[in-house]
C-alpha cells in the first residue's frame, strides 16, 4: 500500500467509523424500520457510511419467491446476514430491521460474523404484542386475528425472545429520539463509532 493509500484508508476509517452490523429484532410493528431509518439519518450526519437492509425490501429482491415457512424465514435471515456481514467487513454500518424470529437463525448470523471477525450487535425491540397489534402498520395483525392469514409472527407463529441481546428497547415507553440516543450510546460504548 502506498503512503497516499494509507492516509486515504486512515481518513476513511476515521470518517465512516468501524464496520458493524446492528440487527434490530422484534415483533412486526415494534418500530424496527422506523428506528433504523431515524438512526441512519443521524449516523449519516456524523459522516458514517450506512446501509439499511429492510426485510420487506430484501424479500422483494434478494429473497423473491420465499414464503413464510420456518425454513424460508431462516433462509431470508441467513441471506440478509451474509450481505450485512460483507458490507460491515468493508467499513459500512449496516442497520438490519428484520424480525428474525428464531434464535438458531440469529445464532447462525452471529457465528458467520464472528468467523470473519466482523462486529455484530443485536438489539431487541421488546415492544409488547398488544402495542404492536394496535399500531398494525401493515394490517397483518387484524388479518391474523380474523383468521385470514396464518404463520403470523407473535400470533400463531413463534417469536423467540433473544436471551442476551446487546440492548433492549421498548418503543412503547421510549420515544424515537431517546431510542436513537440509546443506539448511538451502544455503538459508542462498543467502540463502533
Q: What is the average per-residue confidence, as pLDDT, rounded to a whole number?
A: 89
The H-and-E topology, N to C, reads as HEHEHHEHEHHEH
- Oligomeric status: single chain
What's the story with the biggest beta sheet? Answer: 5 strands, parallel
CATH class label: Alpha Beta
**Strand arrangement, largest sheet?**
2-3-1-4-5
Query: What is the CATH fold-level name?
Result: Rossmann fold
Give me the CATH superfamily: P-loop containing nucleotide triphosphate hydrolases
Count of alpha and pi helical runs:
8
Strand-pairing-aware structural class: alpha/beta
The helical percent reads 40-55%
Instruction: Tally the structural domains.
Output: 1
Please provide the count of β strands.
5
> What is the end-to-end distance?
25 Å
- Assign an overall shape: globular
What radius of gyration results from the CA coordinates? 17 Å
Q: How much strand content do the residues show?
A: 5-15%
Amino acid at each position: 500500500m502506498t503512503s497516499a493509500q494509507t492516509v486515504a484508508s486512515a481518513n476513511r476509517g476515521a470518517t465512516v467509523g468501524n464496520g458493524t452490523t446492528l440487527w434490530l429484532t422484534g415483533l412486526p410493528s415494534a418500530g424496527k424500520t422506523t428506528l433504523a431509518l431515524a438512526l441512519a439519518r443521524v449516523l449519516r450526519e456524523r459522516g458514517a457510511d450506512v446501509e439499511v437492509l429492510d426485510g420487506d425490501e430484501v424479500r422483494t429482491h434478494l429473497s423473491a419467491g420465499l414464503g413464510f415457512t420456518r425454513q424460508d424465514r431462516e433462509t431470508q435471515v441467513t441471506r440478509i446476514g451474509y450481505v450485512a456481514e460483507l458490507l460491515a467487513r468493508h467499513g459500512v454500518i449496516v442497520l438490519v430491521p428484520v424480525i428474525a424470529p428464531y434464535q438458531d437463525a440469529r445464532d447462525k448470523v452471529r457465528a458467520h460474523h464472528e468467523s470473519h471477525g466482523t462486529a455484530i450487535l443485536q438489539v431487541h425491540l421488546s415492544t409488547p404484542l398488544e402495542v404492536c397489534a394496535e399500531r398494525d402498520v401493515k394490517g397483518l395483525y387484524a388479518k391474523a386475528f380474523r383468521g385470514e392469514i396464518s404463520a403470523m409472527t407473535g400470533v400463531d407463529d413463534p417469536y423467540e425472545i433473544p436471551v442476551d441481546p446487546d440492548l433492549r428497547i421498548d418503543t412503547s415507553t421510549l420515544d424515537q429520539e431517546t431510542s436513537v440516543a440509546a443506539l448511538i450510546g451502544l455503538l459508542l460504548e462498543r467502540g463502533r463509532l
